[in-house]
Records
---
Amino acid sequence: MKKLVTLLFIFITSLCLSNVSFAETSAEKNVLQNFETLISSHKGKVIYLDFWASWCGPCRKSFPWMNNIQDKYQQQGLVIISVNVDNNKALADKFLAEIPANFTVFYDPKGKVARQFKLKGMPSSYIIDRSGKVVSPHVGFSQSKKTKYEQELIALLNTVN
């Protein structure tokens, strides 16, 4: 009986000390499905899909721009969706406390969605047309790229499928 109690104590202690959360594990299994549902819910709109991380310097510069274009073009059918790839959500939360997002933030701590897009750098963004097709992939963010990205978005927003 003493051995059983000892084993039970070790097992419970290991569960308590581990970083495993059963709710998160279940959610992680559904992350791809949840992402697909999110994207599908915006079919008929132009989507600017942005992958970012808290440690990414250019990401800090892209957030104010994404907030601005979301406000500027939302009525024409633009949706901004960002995907955070930090494995620790607290890091993303700290970033967002400093630089708020006025758009959807989707968490991908295991990088499952990011792997589907085969990211080549950070930040990476994808412009998705009204039919749901990726029409323009981008890597990086800078002052010169802002104009190019916005022109691509305007062209798609002016196109009716």
---
Amino acid sequence: MSALTKHRPWLAAILGLILTGLGHLYLRRWRRAALWVLLTFAVSAVFVPPEAFDPLTGGATIPPSEFAAVLRELAPILAVSFASVLDAFFLGLRQAAEAQAQADRSAAEDADTDASTATVADPEADAVTCPECGREVDADIDFCHWCTTRLDEPTDR
């Protein structure tokens, strides 16, 4: 697993903390990011009174006595944002696991193929795949016309 794949879930979560939906954008989940942003706006419109934003937009510092009350009023938005961060983190974990599984399958397929012989894709067809580039070539010629690798006769296993 590459270093980027290992750090990807954490980076998505950190970006999600900065701005709701940003972690999903980093993971290239465009619709999911839009859904979280829309959900945040919907929760804001339905559950948060408009006056709750006044202390944040006023430019003045919020006194400690009012800070808890402001946080309580903004709790629905913060809850949705936190859920978005968790979703981005677990989505990043799942993508990392899928990337690792794909790499493992690819490594297993590479180990199974013999680089010195071409394999027949379909016994009834005349198509042969090149062991070097993997493209189909004509069985009548003894080299790959894509990458010029010499093809030997396939051996039965």
---
Amino acid sequence: MRPLFIKFPRQYLVAAILLLIVLAVGVFAYQHTWQSPEAVVKINVTNHGVSLPDGFFLYQHLSAEGITIKSITSGSDSLIISFNSIEESHAAEKVLKRILDNGYRIE
């Protein structure tokens, strides 16, 4: 007696499993494009000999403009400022470009 759940030939079963695997890989591979962009601003030094701005100085200026900072992280050659929203990061970029000179690249 043949089991009831195997009505299709094995080729269809294998093809269906492979299709599901390909779909799963595709979803995970392109998942980063579906996520919202990060609300961060990165400050780099463009000229040698110029140091990174002080995080507290930046915090004071951004807070005075009503921009809430989630975190400030320093790297070897950059500062990364995280915000709660994309709108705050765009507003912070404008403020930082106004208060920092051309020795810094803000992205």
---
Amino acid sequence: MRIVPLLDIRFDERTEATMTPGDAAQHSFCQLLYRYFWPFQYFRDVTRGSQLEQVQNYRFNRSMRRYLPGFAVKWCCLSALWFGAGTLCETALSFVVPAACCYLTATGSFMVVVQVAVAWVWLSHFPERF
């Protein structure tokens, strides 16, 4: 018996610079949402490979840091939306459990904002890894 995942997201190694406009039509809506909201897929792991490869990956990450404020704004808006939904559920509708779920989701969204902001500050202020 084969288990099929509900959301199977796999991307090829091509970057946005090498993608053609027709490539966007090949992705499903969930994949496009994932690419729109999740910033960490655009960065390389600087802990693997030789020292030269690590330096190259760090320089690549520094060149990609300009996109991080946009992702922080997206996640900040998501966090505000979930906090607003939690407030609406709690005050106007008196639903405690859905309000708690909204607040937990908003807190998780805000943690992504903090991670993105720390990554942006780190990549902006430290030009070399070694």
